[in-house]
């Protein structure tokens, strides 16, 4: 989830997580159909060869759901293999990227997917096209804050980009799968849960989530001003402020500002326009407790956070693969063990692979397993 955590933060939080997560409710499937107008293509701009070191790249502007409903404009990348399109078109892998921030300068179209290149190039080398959403609010000229870790709009932004990309590029097949890591693992799970019911005209095949964020909402929903200043935990403050900024934008009916201290409101406002590399600087010297004036449990704020970012566990219609690092301290492995229990209790078909690596190393460590799994999905 949160690539700015110190390595010790996750371990400290995870120490008490097992009891808290054992009683956590199951994420419910997001089965709503697509509102009219979502996935509409607004613009398609081919980029010159070599843009971001990609040989065939384009930026697609499209319509998708906003954080409070209705339609907003968003953008994403389309990357094509150098090989000719096969009969029926290039199969599609939708890529959901990890935490990049909340501001309109933080999306994958701005970074040209530089941080994601090794895995995306491996997809292209297999003859698969890649589509990669910025997520809502992360594209240049966005008019809404990014609803960070919001389950619904992560999913709709991904599916709607697949729809728009197929309108823009006739060489794309309607067969697709979704892969994501960290925040993107959370987004991939949300997408895989939503995909078939939201876009039944597309041939969705399955989901890969690497080190997906899950179950943090069940811990954070219980914190309050009483949480002491603990250096090993305080680097969670910036990402937590990002979640609250997204919740505030998505649920205006909840009094998020009323639960924040004055320094907390200042931080949440600042995080709302910042990229991830600035989270530590903005939250320096602050703790979880210092940004809150009231407990998260008061007045439905904690419940609202759970609804906002819970990873769905029931209702998947296609296969799911989760990979995770045993030494991950960003999303500690107990979080995913809890998620697996929740998925299996809900009857979800899920495969799991664990590697002796950290959060940052999971994409490389599990690459061969992911490629084999996705190849089986797209060939089925």
UniProtKB/TrEMBL annotation:
Endpoints of the signal sequence:
1-33
InterPro entries associated with the record: AB_hydrolase_fold, Lipase_secreted, TAT_signal
Signal as UniProt keyword: yes
Q: Name one Pfam family in it.
A: LIP
Q: Which UniProt keywords apply?
A: Signal
Among SUPFAM superfamilies, the record links this protein to: alpha/beta-Hydrolases (SSF53474)
Q: What is this protein called?
A: Triacylglycerol lipase
According to its UniProt entry, this protein's organism is: Nocardia rhizosphaerihabitans
């Amino acid at each position: 989830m949160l690539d700015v955590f110190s390595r010790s933060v996750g371990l400290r939080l995870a120490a008490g997580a097992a009891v808290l997560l054992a009683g956590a409710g199951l994420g419910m499937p997001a089965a709503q159909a697509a509102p009219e107008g979502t996935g509409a293509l607004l613009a398609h701009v081919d980029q010159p060869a070599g843009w971001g070191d990609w040989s065939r790249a384009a930026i697609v502007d499209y319509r998708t759901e906003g954080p409070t409903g209705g339609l907003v404009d968003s953008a994403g990348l389309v990357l094509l293999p150098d090989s000719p399109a096969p009969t029926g078109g290039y199969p599609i892998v939708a890529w959901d990227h990890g935490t990049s921030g909340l501001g309109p300068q933080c999306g994958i179209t701005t970074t040209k997917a530089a941080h994601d290149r090794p895995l995306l190039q491996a997809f292209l080398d297999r003859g698969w096209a890649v589509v990669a959403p910025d997520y809502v609010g992360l594209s240049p000229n966005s008019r809404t804050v990014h609803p960070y870790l919001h389950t619904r709009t992560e999913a709709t932004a991904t599916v709607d980009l697949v729809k728009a990309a197929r309108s823009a590029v006739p060489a794309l097949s309607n067969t697709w799968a979704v892969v994501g890591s960290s925040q993107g693992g959370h987004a991939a799970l949300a997408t895989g849960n939503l995909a078939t019911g939201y876009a039944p005209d597309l041939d969705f095949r399955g989901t890969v989530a690497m080190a997906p964020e899950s179950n943090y909402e069940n811990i954070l929903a219980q914190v309050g001003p009483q949480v002491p200043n603990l250096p090993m935990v305080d680097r969670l403050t910036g990402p937590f402020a990002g979640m609250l900024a997204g919740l505030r934008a998505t649920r205006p009916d909840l009094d998020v500002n009323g639960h924040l201290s004055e320094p907390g409101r200042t931080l949440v406002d600042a995080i709302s326009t910042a990229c991830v590399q600035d989270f530590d600087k903005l939250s320096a010297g602050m703790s979880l407790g210092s940004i809150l004036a009231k407990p998260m449990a008061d007045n439905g704020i904690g419940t609202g956070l759970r609804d906002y970012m819970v990873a769905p566990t029931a209702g998947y219609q296609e296969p799911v693969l989760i990979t995770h690092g045993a030494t991950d301290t960003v999303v500690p492995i107990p979080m995913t063990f809890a998620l697996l229990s929740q998925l299996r209790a809900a009857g979800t078909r899920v495969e799991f692979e664990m590697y002796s690596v950290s959060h940052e190393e999971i994409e490389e460590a599990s690459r061969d397993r992911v490629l084999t799994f996705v190849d089986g999905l797209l060939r089925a």
